[in-house]
Design brief:
By secondary structure, the chain is mainly beta. Helices cover about 10% and strands about 40% of the residues. It contains 4 helices and 20 strands. The protein has a 6-stranded antiparallel β-sheet with strand order 8-9-5-4-3-12, with no helix packed on it. A 4-stranded antiparallel β-sheet has the order 7-6-10-11, with no helix packed on it. Strands 13-14-15-18 form a 4-stranded antiparallel β-sheet, with no helix packed on it. The chain is globular and about 75 Å long. It holds the Pfam family CHRD. This is CHRD domain-containing protein.
Length: about 300
Amino acid sequence: DPDFAEVLTDLNSRELFWLSRGQLEMAVATEGQDPRQISGFITGRKSCDAIQSVMSSGDALIPGKTGGVGSAIFNLHDNGTLDYQVQVAGLTSDVVGLTIELKPRRRNKRSILYDLTSEYSKATGQAVGSWSRLEARHIHMLLQNELFINVATAHSQEGELRGQIKALPYSGLEVPRDELPTPLAGHFVSPPVRTGASGHAWVSVDKQCHLHYEIIVAGLSKTDDVAVNAHLHGLAEIGELDDSNTNHKRLLTGFYGSQAQGILKDMSVELLQHLDQGTAFIQVSTKMNPQGEIRGRVCDKRSHCH
């Protein structure tokens, strides 16, 4: 047959090591007088999906409502190296721990896989680096959305922010998913909102002056109470930061769930200028906070639009 499937159940630790480093090869050969052979290296699943995480206080192991936000993007290479870029904002106190973790084994027993704390810079609020020792099992868990990222602070030693590391399916939008997105937080709303929700957004403006946007939110309330459940209906808006003039908001989209995306076509010259200068914001409003629950300042430095 041209295709066949088999499960190898007895890979030893050395073979698993080779697998994790992209050094395990599979060969297919034909029988007969003139045998031919093709071969290739086995790598992690290839896709245009982005591996990312939104960290919120609502998703912390001990859920809170701080109005802070964390945001991370990852890039997995064939040789088992994972690049990461993490940013946090609006925290109640200094970061004391930044870790990639499994689900807790017991209620309060955190299971730390990798510690990024030494890469964190207080000055920038970011951690940028590479983790070059992923095991095959952990690569599998990463691609199965089974890993988490946790931010511990002086006031919340177990974790003030936490997020699931998830693959975000390719959307077809022209947004720079390989760059850190704009963090969205209650901390950035004016006046600040103490919320368990947070988010991040990628935006870009194309040659036609159309705004492409992708917004991911996390930590929205998960209860079944009808009054609170209505809270999951979010409205994503874009506007200019000048607060004296809040009527300059444009609705991007209403959404249910954790993400909103689309293309805004008829943008005013003023809004394009604000985007260019970094004086525009994206905000998500909910029934609980109709004036804005989370917000972030956006700009498009790569704008092709003039």
